[in-house]
Amino acid sequence: MAIRQLSPETVNRIAAGEVVERPASVVKELVENAIDAGATQIEIVIAAGGLSLIRVTDDGSGMTPEDLALAVERHATSKLDEEDLFDIRCLGFRGEALPSIGSIARLEIKSRPRDANQGAVVVVTRGAKAPLAPAAVNRGTVVEVRDLFSATPARLKFLKSERAEAMAVTDIVRRLAMAHPDIGFTLQTGEKKPAIFARGDRSSAAWLERIGAIMGREFMDDALEVSGAGNGASAPMRVFGFAGLPTLHRQDSTQQFLFVNGRPVKDKLLIGAVRAAYGDLIPRGRSPLLSLFLDVAPSDVDVNVHPAKAEVRFRDSGRVRALMVRALSDALATAGYRASAQGGVLTVESFAAGVLPNSAVPPPSYSGSPGTSDYQWMAPSRAPDLSERAFSGFSERAQTPFAVLNTPSADARTSTEPAASETLDKPLGAVRAQVHENYIVAQTRDGLVIVDQHAAHERLVYEKLKASLASGGVARQGLLIPAIIELDDDDADSLVARSDELAELGLVIESFGGGAVAVREVPALLGETDVEGLVKDLAAELRSDGTARALKDRLDSVASRMACHGSVRSGRRLTVEEMNALLRQMEATPYSGQCNHGRPTYVALKLTDIERLFGRR
């Protein structure tokens, strides 16, 4: 078959296949253009999931008629310096989005510069461009896209439901709004109430307010501020944002928001850095909640490696990863004993819902006098009304049947003396009792704390073991006969190049000819271990992301098991002094809010919530 030149219309439709995957892709391109134009207010309206209508209105700099005519031509842009293709400081830069959208839909653009008295409009219908015309429009730009994919109807079969497409649009707008708190956003997807993100500034408080509006109040209550700086490949770089406490986690990673130079990305390197920083602080298979922003020099990151610009490539990925891990680890260490406030909230909610659930049967009544033979239970004789069906919890009405139990049968208190005032002011309070030989009940100035003694002590022992390993080094155990491990030449060279780093972790290796290494010593803490499997795991990690975590992870895993077996066991009765000492150690130990397996070590209940359970508020 002879080679032929494709028509401009066909070329645009092919380009549209790369740029416009779904309606959310169109919204992303148009909103990014509005941000690049210096807008302070952006309104997005969609109908039918964006298939029948997408309208983006901004108050940015606008375009002159001459620029407007060029804007719908291929590879026409004002954002790219032809002298340096890597100095990209805007979200958009290729000049492909508008002509690609115009080739598969009806595209109308109205724009008016801030210093002009009249605007202009251009219309492109399935690749056919109409002449420029004057238009009445406010300062800024209005882009309207109708009948998306009408020129390529086969693409419609690959789209999801209108509701799913609207949710994808919402996700895109939320991510862009999160990165730009100094811009106001309004999103109307056809729901009754539009999503409105009020304009703020770029202060830390305003940023957290915007993030909280998107991620929820629970994240704001448990957010830790993250901040770090370092040297990039050619210029300084910094990371900032907010990360949730380790006890606040989800089954999926939908609540992880990562940005590079204000651009939302899904980058494996950054996700791996997050996983490494949280490490053993969260359960396996769970994902933390966070919103992090990485600022690097434009020359140190390539944003043109993905058609949708969702992935990036760093010039020095090792420095980027190290900065992310260090900044996150420092923030998590400052949390100390803190655990998610949601634990107490969920506990109170479970009490409120479970103590006396609403049902069609009213509570029973009693006849006779307590303690006599005529004291009998009587079945309910009528169906309750709505007011009776509504009451629940520990309110006084709910407790009426238990009025005869107002005299304690024995003194079950662990501490009969009033707690010292200074102890009540401690974060975890003063011990008042131990129940079920595993749970410590402590009183604070404004509530109660329930501590899992085994989980808490397990974390304390684990942190001591890790500190000992870090300060004293890892004891080594020499092999009677060195283990010879055959590898690829590149893998062997990578391991030998990291031999000093591995030796600090107790693994002594050296080159053994081409494509092989000799292992002479291993960490004594590992005992009998699969040396070959360990070395090959290390080689695979070095090949994939340039790190050697497998050895450290194994050491941490052994330390975790030692801590589990060496900690206070469930079922052991402790003295008041021992329990108070445990609480004070928790307050002074980083990460003590969760055990080695990521579970919370304590739950805090506020007095106001407890009083609400009893109907006192």
Describe this structure in words.
The protein is of the alpha+beta class. Helix content is 35%, strand content 23%. A hairpin with a 2-residue loop joins β4 and β5. The protein is globular, with a radius of gyration of 32 Å. Residues 355-367, 369-396 and 398-412 have low confidence and may be disordered.
Task: Reconstruct the topology from this structure.
Elements: H1 8-19, H2 23-36, E1 41-47, E2 53-58, H3 65-71, H4 97-104, E3 106-112, E4 119-125, E5 128-129, E6 133-135, E7 140-146, H5 162-179, E8 184-188, E9 195-197, H6 204-215, H7 217-221, E10 223-231, E11 236-244, E12 249-250, E13 256-260, E14 263-265, H8 268-278, E15 287-288, E16 290-295, E17 301-302, E18 313-314, H9 317-334, H10 342-354, E19 365-367, E20 376-378, H11 386-390, H12 396-399, H13 421-424, E21 430-435, E22 439-444, E23 447-452, H14 453-472, E24 476-486, H15 489-497, H16 499-504, E25 508-511, E26 516-523, H17 531-545, H18 549-566, H19 576-588, E27 602-606, H20 607-613
Parallel strand pairs: 1-8, 13-16
Antiparallel strand pairs: 1-2, 2-7, 3-4, 3-7, 4-5, 4-6, 8-9, 10-11, 11-16, 12-15, 13-14, 17-18, 19-20, 21-22, 22-23, 23-27, 24-26, 25-26
Helix pairs in contact: 1-4, 2-5, 5-6, 8-9, 14-18, 14-19, 15-17
What is the 3D form? globular
Give the class from helix and strand content and strand pairing: alpha+beta
The residue-averaged pLDDT reads 82
Taken as a percent bin, the fraction of beta residues is 15-25%
Distance between the termini: 82 Å
Rg value: 32 Å
What low-confidence regions span 5 or more consecutive residues with pLDDT below 50?
A: 355-367, 369-396, 398-412
